[in-house]
Design brief:
- The protein has 2 domains: about 10-85, Winged helix-like DNA-binding domain superfamily/Winged helix DNA-binding domain (Arc Repressor Mutant, subunit A, Orthogonal Bundle); about 90-180.
- Helices cover about 65% and strands about 10% of the residues.
- It is built from 8 helices and 3 strands; from the N terminus they run H-E-H-H-E-E-H-H-H-H-H.
- The protein has a 3-stranded antiparallel β-sheet.
């Protein structure tokens, strides 16, 4: 039986649970950072934690707090850490790019703390390869569509191409930064 697909919110939680945290602590992180885009709603976070726990990826334990307060603290299990590492290290695909960069950047954000700078570099190199191919395909598609769509459609499509090119420029910059810091030897572009 295949494991159920983990949504981006689930992976965000796994990444944050490198440090044991309560649901309330996690909600605070989501509400006070750019992770808010995944959700800061208890109606999303607590069910996601329950699904991860049911899947054996995290374990919650009730701890005594100050006064009469008790709180449940969640920790990654070895299986959860393994799943997180697999998600981070899988190659970037065209489907990842079509869905947008948010999940790719989430993988990248956790890559160094979960694995190593080498894993971050590997993910960037995978992103670079996927982007080069995708930009070529977008340009070909644009040339076919250009005579058939109004100016607004052409400009919208060009915006998507330019956004993708900007992400490739950023990937080059990020790889150069690792190289400058001595964490990447040589480089491919």
């Amino acid at each position: 039986m295949a494991a159920p697909k983990i949504p981006a919110l689930g992976y965000a939680l796994l990444g944050l649970l490198q440090k044991p945290s309560s649901g309330y602590d996690l909600r605070k992180v989501f509400s006070s950072t750019s992770l808010k885009t995944y959700s800061d709603s208890p109606g999303a976070i607590y069910p996601a934690l329950a699904r991860l726990e049911k899947g054996g990826l995290i374990r919650g334990m009730v701890e005594e707090g100050s006064g009469l307060r008790r709180r449940q603290v969640f920790r990654l299990t070895p299986r959860g850490l393994s799943e997180l590492k697999q998600w981070i290290t899988r190659p970037v695909t065209r489907e990842d790019l079509v869905r947008g960069q948010q999940e790719i950047m989430l993988r990248f954000a956790f890559s160094e703390t979960v694995l190593s700078p080498a894993a971050s570099i590997h993910l960037l190199e995978s992103l670079e390869i996927a982007l080069k191919s995708y930009i070529g395909a977008l340009r070909e598609e644009f040339e076919v569509l250009k005579p058939m769509v109004p100016a607004s459609g052409r400009l919208a499509f060009e915006c998507g191409i330019r956004e993708t090119e900007c992400l490739l420029d950023w990937a080059h910059y990020a790889l150069a930064t690792y190289e400058k810091e001595g964490k990447r030897k040589g480089g491919t572009s």
